[in-house]
Design brief:
GO terms for molecular function: ATP binding. Among the domains are: about 1-65, no CATH class; about 670-735. Helix 2 (about 80-90) packs antiparallel against helix 3 (about 105-120), helix 14 crosses helix 16 and helix 22 (about 500-510) packs parallel to helix 23 (about 525-535). It contains 31 helices and 14 strands. With about 725 residues, it is α/β, with parallel strands linked by helices. The N and C termini lie far apart (about 80 Å).
Length: about 725
């Protein structure tokens, strides 16, 4: 028979004969502790084998003479075992509650390869992954970042870290022999949390022995507190803090996982451990007086027989004033927490960093490209997860888990913190944030998991600019989830250069319906994506009036889907298909369906290799169109005859203006700056040689028109435009 006794530190065993009597009869009824002691004495069932698990601090509770062998379970001493764990964990279908069917084995292999390479060159993370539970955290975070197609309410980054702590510390008391019976997690929040918070506030991640002494307040502790500290140091300290392996920092400590510093700092603040003495006294006195006042009725009934009746109101008022006063004092903590959260969330010195999801991704998988030189000074530490974790910890689900860990955050406290920070958050969000910071803000609202709060914060957000943010399926889901808390119309949604694909558009579909101006340039959106856009534009709730699809490989098939959408759409007034590889066939398809449209006002078909036939056909249809008055056709393969035919168009007679070149007879076109601005913005993405040829032709046209006019004012205008074109040509020639 093999007995496995798990968690010796929870049992208060007494091996003295006076404390526990001898017992060798399995049938004799004795207390459970007596059974365990006699098993370990080998007095009861001596032939049985016994394995006892315990934390290091409780090892000596069993006298050495009863122990045959000691073994310490350390972690993955073999890196190949570590890699095998990652391989098995990341290849599990439906891991972390996610449906992983859609992810290819190639993507998993790529993740494993990047993770292995980063572990080889990032010693600190490799040291952390020595512990299997940190390997679990790394894998769960990767699943969250890469295999999340839709975000369930419980799936948040804070939720992952909270679950990780429950996995390791659920039901754990720091020292079962101590009368305070403090939970291990509560002790960690008070001590390590304080160190983490002070590190976040002073922007540092490495801590000296002096920093540790100061935070743990060794000099000020009683004997009982010192015993708790000793247990903590032997059992838990190495789990959260580890010696730094970076050269020159050998005698300092860092958090085993960097993000854990921000989580514990957030927990320290939200639990109200960052209090002044007045706040602490206020809360305690309020509770004490509150308990006393329950028995006051009995006391007053006795006193009233002795004292005159006029003194009774005075006594009642005193009892009423104190609890109110002290609860009001302790209530100021809620404002302080809200202020800290809002201040950190909108900290301007962290602007223009990658958003937090990319930062987490980089920390686990590394950054592709050249490594930093060892002598190069590191960037300033960024702590953008700190306010996000504060919001996440206040969510109902995480509060319930933390309650199990002995870290209680009441519903009322969470409500008051949310109420206190609402105005600040809404006011700051209206100022307009850089794209990566706006993504962090949306992620914060998602982590907060408070639908009413999110709805009020998002209602004021009329313009959403996320250009150049790499919109992974997770980020798309977060955006859709947060924006889905309201149904207000969005004036502008900018998703330029966001790595969108067909599945991204599918996730964002409910949000896109409500956007008046929709920027989808530079996203490699092909014909499949155009099919989604067609369904979007034909939806009866679609309000999109300005759609920009420039620099996407739409092609002929994509043009077919967009043309079908144009025929029956009622909201679109401006459509840009600049540089979308339409060709003559694509333009012809759009022209055929354009006649059925009744609302379009401006159409951009520039830089699409259109020849005279297609260009003139589009213009002929535009002439008969009720509202279309502007067609962009510059940078196409239109002959001189075609240009003359287009040039002869008159707005008052034909009802449409074609933007083909920068001249209008012997004058500069009214739209020359519009055309050059479009070219300027797109120079980095267009074929340089072809653009150079077009600009050279434009320059010749300008010079020819300038020579034909005798008006000095017009000549000056021509010279100004020529100088702008020459600047662009100069940049192209220098490869700039």
């Amino acid at each position: 028979v093999l007995f496995i006794l798990n968690g010796l530190e929870r049992l208060n065993l007494d091996f003295r004969l006076a404390g526990t009597e001898l017992c060798c009869d399995p049938n004799e009824p004795v207390p459970p502790s007596a059974i365990v002691v006699n098993l370990l004495r080998k007095y009861l069932l001596p032939e049985a084998s016994i394995i006892v698990t315990t934390r290091p601090s409780a090892v000596r509770r069993i006298p050495g003479k009863y122990v045959g062998r000691y073994a310490e379970i350390c972690g993955f001493s073999d890196t190949n075992l570590q890699k095998l764990y990652f391989q098995m964990r990341l290849s599990q279908p439906g891991c972390s509650g996610e449906d992983n069917v859609g992810s290819s084995s190639g993507e998993q292999d790529n993740l494993l390869e990047m993770l292995s390479r980063n572990l080889e060159r990032h010693n600190q993370i490799a040291a952390a992954c020595f512990l299997p539970s940190y390997c679990w955290l790394v894998c769960t975070t990767l699943h969250f970042l890469y295999f999340t197609r839709t975000v369930p309410p419980s799936q948040t980054l804070t939720g992952i870290y909270t679950s990780f702590l429950r996995l390791n510390f659920s039901g754990e008391v720091l020292d079962s022999t101590d009368p305070t019976n403090i939970s291990m997690m509560k002790y960690v929040a008070k001590t390590v949390g304080k160190l983490a918070y002070e590190g976040v506030m002073s922007r540092k991640t490495c801590f000296s022995e002096d920093d540790l002494q100061q935070c743990f307040e060794v000099e000020m502790k009683t004997e009982s507190e010192l015993n708790l500290l000793e247990v903590f140091r032997s059992d838990v300290f190495r789990f959260f803090l580890t010696p730094c392996v970076q050269p020159g920092k050998e005698h300092t400590f860092v958090f085993t996982i960097p993000a854990m510093q921000e989580y514990l700092a957030a927990l320290y603040v939200v639990l109200g451990e960052k209090k002044t003495l007045a706040h602490r006294l206020g809360k305690e006195l309020s509770e004490v007086i509150g308990k006393v006042s329950e028995d006051v009725a009995v006391v007053l009934s006795i006193i009233s027989k002795v004292l005159p009746l006029r003194f009774l109101p005075v006594l009642f008022n005193l009892l009423k004033i104190f609890p109110r006063y002290f609860s009001r004092l302790s209530g100021k903590d809620r404002d302080a927490i809200a202020h800290t959260m809002a201040e950190e969330l909108f900290k301007e010195e962290d602007y223009y960093n990658d958003d937090v999801l990319d930062q987490i991704n980089f920390s686990i998988l590394g950054v592709e490209g050249p490594m930093r030189h060892p002598d190069e000074a590191p960037d300033d530490e960024v702590f953008e997860l700190f306010p996000i974790f504060m919001g996440g910890i206040l969510s109902r689900r995480n509060r319930a888990i933390l309650e199990q860990l002995g870290c209680s955050i009441k519903n009322l406290a969470a409500f008051e913190i949310a109420k206190a920070m609402k105005k600040t958050v809404i006011r700051n969000s209206r100022k307009g944030l850089p794209p990566s910071e706006l993504m962090d803000y949306l992620f914060f609202l998602h982590e907060f998991q408070n639908e009413r709060f999110t709805a009020e914060a998002i209602r004021s957000l009329r313009t959403v600019n996320l250009s150049s943010v790499k919109m992974t399926p997770l980020k798309c889901s977060v955006l859709a989830s947060v924006m889905g808390t309201t149904c207000h119309e969005v004036e502008e949604l900018n998703l330029t250069s966001c790595n969108l694909d067909t599945s991204s558009l599918r996730i964002l579909f409910p949000v896109l319906l409500r956007c008046k101006a929709l920027h989808l340039q530079l996203n490699s959106l092909g014909s499949d994506a155009c099919k989604e856009i067609r369904d979007l534009l034909l939806h009866d709730k679609c309000v999109v009036s300005n759609l920009r699809l420039a620099n996407n490989p739409v092609g002929e098939q994509g043009a077919q889907y967009l043309a079908e959408a144009l025929a029956d759409n009622r909201s679109l007034t401006h459509l840009s298909l600049l540089h979308t590889a339409l060709g003559d066939q694509g333009a012809e398809i759009i022209a055929q369906h354009l006649a059925k449209n009744q609302h379009l006002q401006e159409l951009n078909l520039g830089y699409n290799s259109l020849t005279d036939t297609a260009a003139l056909h589009v213009v002929e249809v535009a002439k008969k169109h009720a509202t279309l008055d502007k067609v962009h056709l510059y940078f196409n393969d239109i002959s001189e005859d075609g240009k003359r035919a287009l040039h002869s168009l008159r707005m008052d007679r034909d009802g449409v203006r074609a933007l083909v070149f920068l001249t209008a007879g012997t004058d500069v076109s009214d739209y020359w700056s519009n055309i050059l601005n479009v070219v300027q913005k797109n120079l980095p993405f267009w074929d340089r040689e072809r653009v150079r040829q077009h600009l050279a032709l434009i320059l010749q046209d300008l010079e020819s028109s300038r020579r034909q006019t005798a008006n000095p004012w017009r000549k000056a205008k021509f010279l100004r435009v020529e100088s702008e074109v020459k600047k662009m040509l100069g940049k192209l020639q220098h490869g700039n």
